[in-house]
Write a structure and sequence with these properties.
The complex is a heterodimer.
Chain A lengths: L1 E5 L2 E3 L5 E3 L4 E3 L5 E3 L1 H17 L2 E7 L5 H9 L4 E5 L9 H15 L4 E5 L10 H9 L3 E10 L5 E8 L2 E8 L2 E5 L11 H9 L4 E2 L1 H4 L34 H14 L4
Parallel strand pairs in A: 1-6, 1-8, 6-7, 7-13, 8-12, 9-12
Antiparallel strand pairs in A: 2-5, 3-4, 9-10, 10-11
Chain B lengths: L9 H18 L3 H7 L4 H9 L18 H14 L1 H20 L2 H13 L4 E4 L15 E5 L2 E12 L6 E7 L9 E7 L5 E6 L10 E12 L3 E2 L5 H37 L1 E2 L2 E2 L4 H29 L6 H31 L5 H11 L6 H18 L1
Parallel strand pairs in B: 1-4
Antiparallel strand pairs in B: 2-3, 3-7, 4-5, 5-8, 6-7, 9-10
Classes of the chains: A alpha/beta, B alpha+beta.
Chain lengths: 262, 387
């Protein structure tokens, strides 16, 4: 089974800070980690491979240091890591990102399953998975929280979480899934994996290597641009209501009505 | 702030990182529950196996990593930061495995080491008996030859991982007239006829670790289970303990570090007399002594472990020093941590009371600290006789 897992390096949510004046994330001193949902996509891929054989290839588009994320994936047991990195990829929105990832997956040859996290915790769009599926011409299911493969080794039974509950779906490979954290528990790295990951050769594919059209990658290939970012601020106000219990309740109800809550 | 540089290689740092990840992600979240329920940490053992930690000291030909006492200490220290009951189970597996590695025949190594490496089977070491603790020569478990078999009779006491482990290396008497030279080691397997387990002990601490009797009643095992030569049992036990004792020192360092971290964190937050209690010199000096003693112990443990790995002979004295100094330190540091947390420290909702209860065993098992002093004292006498 040929499995591709797409991962993204994101700022560690525990250490990230926001520069309110510049309206940007402070990147200095912030650790970069694998997007939490992507660990579960990787785990799903590794479990599939452990059961059905084949290979797990991990892809990441990002700056040169995203290589660390790929090495971590290798230490967990992925077979191959490929870094998609080129200055021309910078500023990509989901349109340009899915184009670039699709070019890389096409270059890898036929795949049975593409796995992505539900969304990245920095951009939060949840568009890359579905967008990539469309570009690859693959059927897809998002927000998968349970997964089993039938005896034919091709048909999957999936549980897709939605706002009201969940759907049970049947889907045949080749396909693309985006997964939730509740799908599985991520394994620990192994010492063998860490040693292998340290020495592993991680090829870097740039725009030329992918045969990507310059107008469809990076900022040039993006339909959207981030014009500004801001940190939401919540102003809290407190007011003590005075008087007897009845008067206080009346005052409270009045304020609820005023605020349109009642 | 600069940390002491112990010049770890990249691979050693990987071992530290991996063991740390297990401590933080797998051990700390469940340690209080395991302690309370006196539950054996099978899930964590599986995590350790998956992370390859059981094979650290085992040669590559058996699937291991051919690392030494030092790497074992590094792993144990990080794991002990989480919980020494869990770590004791891990360390006991090395204690049971070393005799096979050091004295086993090629056939025995091939039969047992791969499963020990992969974590598929846990190992335990059985020396202590009801009447043979510090005076190990008093063991009463016997092994008698009977045709092509050995028949074992007797009871081992307080055996770590008893009942849970699949493989046991035990020391028996094969010739009582020869005293210590009449002891012989054997490999036992769970399920051997006549081999059963006695009661599970209830303890002051170390509750996630299983401590049980091994009962041998006309237990018949084939000849090829004898480990090393007849009469070599004590040498096997002593060589094994010499290698394992720095690991107990490392466990003490990890535990004490965890207690210090809790104490400093608390002292910075706890307000009394309108200021955090860390601003009081009485508290500062306690913390300063704790931190200094931990670092001194770590330096001693690491140096001894590296000396062993460099191939030194006769390491009994150094090994005893690493165990003695670090474990006495851990008892003091965990006690002081409870003192700094005051009433909160005595409560089960804070982790330091468990650390203090657990610490005590470090001064007792794998040779009491009094025996450690005997070993060091005897070695000094011998050394100076030569001068």
């Amino acid at each position: 089974m040929n499995i591709v897992v797409c991962i993204k390096q994101v700022p560690d949510a525990k250490t990230v800070r926001f520069d309110t004046e510049k309206g940007t994330l402070v990147r200095e001193g912030v650790e970069a980690v694998i997007n939490p949902f992507d660990f579960h996509a990787l785990e799903a891929g590794l479990q599939m491979r452990d059961t059905y054989g084949g290979e797990v290839t991990v892809l990441s588009m990002g700056p040169p240091q995203a290589e660390n994320a790929l090495r971590e994936a290798l230490s967990l047991g992925a077979d191959k890591g490929i870094l998609l990195s080129d200055r021309a990829f910078a500023g990509a929105d989901t349109l340009a990102t899915t184009y670039t990832l699709a070019k890389a997956i096409e270059k890898l040859g036929p795949v049975d399953l593409v796995l992505c996290g539900k969304q990245a915790i920095d951009g939060d769009t949840a568009q890359v998975g579905p967008g990539l599926a469309v570009r690859l011409g693959l059927p897809h299911v998002t927000c998968v929280s349970a997964l089993s493969v039938l005896d034919d080794g091709k048909t999957m039974h999936l549980r897709r979480v939605n706002e009201d509950g969940y759907d049970m779906l049947e889907l045949e490979m080749p396909a693309l899934l985006t997964v939730l954290a509740s799908l599985n528990t991520s394994r620990l790295p192994s010492l063998k994996g860490k040693m292998r990951a340290r020495k592993a050769d991680i090829p870097v594919w740039d725009a030329q290597k992918l045969g990507a059209e310059p107008g469809r990658i990076g900022l040039a290939g993006s339909a959207t641009q981030v014009v500004s970012t801001s940190l939401p601020t919540f102003e809290a106000r407190q007011e003590m209501l005075e008087g007897s219990a009845e008067e206080q309740v009346e005052a409270l109800v009045f304020r609820f009505k005023e605020a349109g809550i009642l | 702030m600069t940390q002491v540089n112990y010049f770890l290689t990249e691979e050693q740092q990987m071992i530290v990182d991996l063991a740390w990840q297990i401590a933080v992600e797998k051990i700390i979240p469940v340690r209080a529950k395991l302690d309370e329920a006196e539950e054996f940490p099978w899930d964590i053992m599986k995590d350790m196996a998956q992370a390859d930690l059981f094979g650290l000291y085992i040669p590559e030909e058996y699937g291991g990593f051919a690392k030494g006492c030092f790497e074992n200490c590094l792993a144990v220290e990080q794991l002990a930061y989480g919980c020494i009951a869990v770590t004791t189970t891990f360390a006991a597996s090395a204690l049971g495995g070393y005799p096979i590695l050091l004295f086993g025949s090629d056939e025995q190594k091939a039969r047992y080491l791969p499963d020990i490496t992969s974590g598929k089977r846990l190992v335990a070491f059985g020396l202590t008996e009801a009447n043979a603790g510090s005076d190990a020569a008093r063991i009463q478990t016997t092994a008698v030859e009977d045709g092509d078999d050995w028949i074992i009779n007797g009871t081992k006491q307080w055996i770590t991982s008893g009942g849970e482990a699949e493989i046991y290396t035990i020391i028996t008497m094969t010739n009582r007239n020869k005293g210590a030279r009449g002891a012989t080691a054997f490999i036992l397997e769970k399920g051997d006829p006549g081999f059963s387990f006695g009661k599970k002990e209830r303890k002051m601490g170390l509750n996630a670790s299983s401590t049980r009797e091994l009962v041998f009643n006309e237990c018949r095992i084939p000849k090829d289970r004898m480990l090393g030569k007849k009469g070599q049992g004590f040498i096997i036990a002593m060589r094994t303990l010499d290698l394992a004792r720095p690991g107990i020192g490392a466990m003490a360092v990890g535990l004490a570090q965890a207690a210090l971290d809790e104490a400093v964190k608390y002292a910075r937050q706890r307000i009394q007399f309108d200021q955090p209690i860390i601003s009081f010199q009485a508290i500062q000096h306690m913390l300063a002594d704790m931190a200094t003693r931990i670092e001194a112990s770590r330096a001693l443990v690491y140096s001894v472990a590296r000396t062993i790995d460099a191939g030194a002979n006769d390491v009994a004295k150094l090994s005893a020093m690493a165990k003695l100094f670090a474990t006495d330190m851990a008892m003091q540091v965990t006690t002081d941590a409870v003192q700094i947390l005051g009433g909160y420290g005595y409560m089960k909702s804070y982790p330091v009371e468990k650390m203090m209860r657990d610490a005590k065993v470090l001064q007792i098992y794998e040779g009491t600290n009094q025996i450690m002093r005997n070993v060091i004292g005897k070695a000094l006498n011998k050394e100076y006789a030569k001068k």
